[in-house]
Amino acid sequence: MTVKMEASAGKLAHNTLMTYGIIIAIVGIYLTYLNTLTGIAVFSFFGGIGAIAALWWGSDTIKHLCSYGLGTGVPSAGMIAFGAGAIAMIAGTKFGLASPIVVLILAAVIGAVIGYVANNIINMNIPVMITSLIELAIVGAMTMLGFASMCTGSFTFNGLVIGGMSLSMEPATQVAAGGAQTFMVTVIPEFAGSLIGGAALAVIFFLGAMALQHPFNACLGPNEQQDRTLMLALEVGFLSMIVVAVMSYVFLDLVSATVGLAVALIGWFYTYKKYIELSKRDAYAWLDAKPIIEVGGDQ
Question: Domain spans of the chain?
Answer without folding.
Answer: 14-163+193-285
